[in-house]
Design brief:
AN1-like_Znf; Jelly Rolls; B box-type domain-containing protein; 18 strands; 32% helix; alpha+beta; single chain; 3 helices; 28% strand; 340 residues
Length: 340
């Protein structure tokens, strides 16, 4: 007969004997009749819990994540639509401003030509040279009117899948220069004009100031104005630009919003001289070219005898379009002659 130590015992209550009859196939533990039933009940409860967890997961099925992602997609859609609408409205505004500015420039140029024609016709003061010049100006105007618009739409390359657009002026399509041939129009102080506005003279004592502005308005394209220094030359002169809305004063560089140079090496920004160079740089019969680059918002001055070039960026908040040519003197007998 087997000893008690050799008898199989229930893992739960420790009883031994014939009542210990079952072994669990999962945990391999021995159990009496009572505890084997309890063990099966516990397993049944656990499998019920597994079933309930399964049902919960089946009900979720990623719906929360999908809802969050869909919300992000909806927000991106609305933000993208708003950005496109803002860019489109900005493009429309820029286009309206460009069209309005172009119309005003052409209207101003036509008005000046009409006034000149009417005045000369009324006074019977015109020659073949005047008529030829007016014909050339009208031809230039026709070229401008018939030329395709210099406005273009560009897509911004910002790395986004949606490229926003903007309207800008195509500076490569420059306006014809025949119509925009420059000449002096108004004078203040010790300045007299001659040769149909192509020559400006200082006519008072040394040290007195005088200034004169050009007839044309500039707000687009690139324009070159070449001139020669003639007469009794011995001191500085000013060359640069002034907004058409700004009144001239006799001392050209003292006008606020003015950009340019006294002589060649003395820059003037907003009516204030920024640097001091040599007054002896300029000589009689020197030729220089003032370039108005509206697209780059800057002006350039080239001195041909020395092959020198300098430039100034222009702050449009201070010196807005349209610009006008501005020349100033402080030396008796000095003359600036616009070349064509």
């Amino acid at each position: 007969m087997a000893s008690a130590a050799e008898k199989k015992r229930c893992a739960q209550c420790g009883k031994a004997g014939e009542i210990v009859v079952s072994t669990c196939d999962g945990c391999q533990q021995l159990s009496c009749d009572k505890h084997i039933n309890e063990h099966r009940h516990e397993l049944a409860r656990q499998i019920d819990n597994v079933g309930q967890e399964h049902d919960l997961l089946q009900n979720l099925n990623g719906e929360n994540d999908a809802h969050l992602i869909l919300s992000r997609i909806d927000a991106w859609e609305q933000e993208s639509i708003t950005r496109v609408q803002v860019a489109a409205e900005a493009a429309r505004t820029d286009l309206r401003e460009l069209i309005s500015r172009t119309k005003n420039e052409r209207k101003a140029l036509l008005g000046k030509l009409a006034d000149e024609l009417q005045s000369n016709r009324k006074s019977d003061d015109y020659t073949e040279n005047d008529i030829n010049r007016w014909i050339q100006q009208l031809k230039g105007l026709r070229e401008i009117m018939e030329k395709p618009s210099n406005v273009e739409i560009v897509e911004e390359s910002n790395g986004a899948s949606i490229h926003l657009i903007k309207v800008r002026e195509n500076c490569s399509q420059q306006q014809p220069h025949a119509f925009l041939s420059e000449r002096f129009d108004k004078a203040v102080g010790a300045v007299a004009l001659s040769q149909d506005g192509l020559m400006a003279w200082h006519v008072d004592y040394i040290g007195s100031n005088g200034s004169t502005s050009g007839v044309n308005l500039y707000s687009s394209g690139t324009h070159h104005i070449r001139f020669r220094l003639e007469g009794d030359w011995g001191h500085w002169f000013f060359s640069g630009i002034i907004p058409s809305s700004q009144e001239m004063v006799a001392d050209a560089s003292r006008s606020r919003s003015v950009y340019g140079w006294w002589d060649f090496e003395n820059t003037v920004i907003n009516g204030k001289q920024q640097s001091v160079g040599k007054a002896e740089f300029i000589e009689k019969d020197d030729e220089m070219t003032l370039t108005l680059n509206c697209g780059k918002k800057q002006i350039e001055l080239e001195h041909h005898r020395t092959n020198s070039l300098t430039h100034l960026p222009v702050d449009l908040r201070v010196c807005p379009f349209p610009w006008k040519l501005l020349v100033g003197f402080d030396w008796r007998g000095g003359c600036v002659h616009i070349l064509r």
